[in-house]
Amino acid sequence: MSTLLNLPKFINSAVCPDDIKRMSKEELTELSAFLRQDLIDCVSKTGGHLASNLGIVEITLALHRVFDSPKDKLIWDVGHQIYIHKMVTGRRDRFASLRQYKGLSGFVTPAESEHDSFIAGHSSTSISLAVGMAIARDQQKQKHKVVAIIGDGGLTGGMALEAINHLGHIQRDVIIVLNDNEMSISENLGGFSQYMKRIKSTFFYKDINKKLDQIEDGLDIAKLEPQVLNLISSVKKEAKARIETPGIVFEKLGINYSGPVDGHNVNEIIEVFERVKDLPGPQLVHVITQKGKGYAPAEADAIKYHGVSAFTPEKVEPQASTPSKNKAKTYSQVFTEALIEIAQETPELVAITPATAEGSGLVQFEKFFPDRFFDVAICEQHAVTMAAGLAASGLIPVVSIYSTFLQRAIDQVIHDVAILNLPVIFGIDRGGLVEDGETHQGVFDIALLRAIPNLQVYAPKDAEELRNILYTVISERKGPAAIRFPRDKAVNAENPGQMQKLDLSRWTRIEEGDGPVLLAYGSMVQACQKALPLLQSRGINPTLINARSCKPLDEKLLQELLQEKKQPIITLEEGALSGGFGSAVTEFRSQLRLANPSEPLAEVISLGIKDHFVEHGSRDILLDLNGLSPARIADFVASALS
């Protein structure tokens, strides 16, 4: 692989857009190879999104060659494919801190650089943003370019299609760069994805047209009868009409189409960008790339290398003779395995995911029940309303979805599921703090869902309880239910027993003491159990309650605790304090107070995520920073008592 021997000044210094503009075609090709290897080296140490960034090296260099960032607005969709963009905008020397606490974010964020036009963590937002920025530019009589970079996975999202529909109508000068690698996190699915594949099969379209034109030019000088010439001309016209014109759907929507273009030929991409840069109206450049380009393991398995932990590049693939170590199961795996068990006895059960089959573990469900598994692509709203249709027709849909992505479908949860009290079960993965930063923190689902009538909201303390809660809500089918669990290793997952029904309206006592009452919700039960010895060493002996149901509350037990205990009641949750589990307990206390103003009640103190967005960092660090580690919980309880 090239080491840029003829570009020594770029090896040990930060490459910038001005450098890229001065390079020759040969130097750009060489820089692409160098940065690709540099990327592999960096991500192998820090972990991160590898395959998607390997696929967009040449596109990124071409963008910075043709456009003038930050004056021209480069708007990245999703934002996890911007590592090369960061490297060439003054942040290459900080890549050792990628996704580390107080280091470089794994996503695009304006707080980090003026070259990051907008924050991005969820998909399908870039074209809407570009339309807004283009309208603002025109209103203010400015002249800069607005470029949206979106993947074919992001293009399946309804928001992106809504934006294209509007852009085609208003005809503003916006350039859309469509990075087409047939992948989102998992393989792209759906009719639009199939259309994109058909476009790529027409790479030869221009060549055929060119040859037909050459034939016609040659016939003009040939001495043929008029009837023969007319016949040949009609055949040529019919041949062209029968070849699917690339991008015809975009053209019909009012978006000028260019492509497909080889996304790993930096000079070819530059030529197309130069051509469309100053054209009036909306332009779409369709660029074909390979996810994982330049690193054989990632090319062979782009799903596996979409997001990776730190690894050793030379030995990333284990030897066949080396037995794999038994890794601790995650809550995602426990959830999927329980779902498979239940589905074997429940033929009407189906599973739905919005393009997160790999991350949620549902690929295993698909292997067992391919006809009962539905990956709807990056379409969270559709996933929920489709589930409502399934439930209304007699099936039992389970929607496996990340907490941060469920936010997009709250209207559908209310309007299409909860009002009719349909038995849709939501498996909310990544509920709580995650390493990916502000856009991905799953801290709002408790507050959002608790406010919705008919909806049950649960959080298990461990793997066994997760299995039993899932089994119970599917068996009872009382209405919509949400089960949230963290992105973490599952507690007590080693030897799962037979699933059994629980009385989900009742909480359970784990520890009885003469001190304060700890009402722990979900993952906080385990944290509190670890905090107990720390508290007991200070002479504090709490009562610990597993409050597995945020809605409904165990009102009978809660009333007893409020009326009988002289010590305060402390609620703990890995979610936003505003409107969360603690708020529910406080509201119940207020109702008791209104019913009997003279009755003394225990004080309620709540611990959770305060009113701020949580930055990126490891889960352990973030839990500690937000007061939810065992040590910090012990400090909080002791402070509350004093």
Please tell me about this protein's structure.
- The protein is of the alpha/beta class.
- Residues 1-9 and 314-324 have low confidence and may be disordered.
- The chain contains 26 helices and 17 strands.
- The strands form three sheets. The protein has a seven-stranded mixed sheet, with helices on both faces. It has a five-stranded parallel sheet with strand order 1-2-3-5-4, with helices on both faces.
- Into which percent range does the helicity of residues fall? 40-55%
Structure annotation, total helices: 26
Strands, count: 17
Q: What is the terminal separation in angstroms? A: 64 Å
Main sheet strand line-up? 7-6-8-9-11-10-15
Largest sheet: 7 strands, mixed
Unreliable parts: 1-9, 314-324
- Fourth CATH level, the homologous superfamily of the largest domain: Thiamin diphosphate (ThDP)-binding fold, Pyr/PP domains
Summary?
The protein is about 40% helix and about 15% strand. The protein contains 26 helices and 17 strands.
Key phrases:
Rossmann fold; disordered N terminus; 642 residues; seven-stranded mixed β-sheet; alpha/beta; 17 strands
Topology (SSEs and partners):
Layout: H1 17-22, H2 25-46, H3 51-54, H4 57-66, E1 73-76, H5 83-91, H6 126-139, E2 146-151, H7 158-170, E3 175-180, H8 191-200, H9 205-221, H10 226-242, H11 248-252, E4 256-262, H12 266-276, E5 283-288, H13 296-300, H14 331-345, E6 349-353, H15 357-360, H16 363-368, E7 373-375, H17 380-392, E8 396-402, H18 403-406, H19 410-418, E9 425-429, H20 445-450, E10 456-458, H21 463-476, E11 481-484, E12 508-511, E13 517-520, H22 524-536, E14 543-546, E15 549-551, H23 555-564, E16 569-576, H24 581-595, E17 604-609, H25 619-625, H26 630-641
Parallel strand pairs: 1-2, 2-3, 3-5, 4-5, 6-7, 6-8, 8-9, 9-11, 10-11, 13-14, 13-16, 16-17
Antiparallel strand pairs: 10-15, 12-14
Helix pairs in contact: 4-12, 6-7, 9-10, 14-21, 17-19, 22-26, 23-24
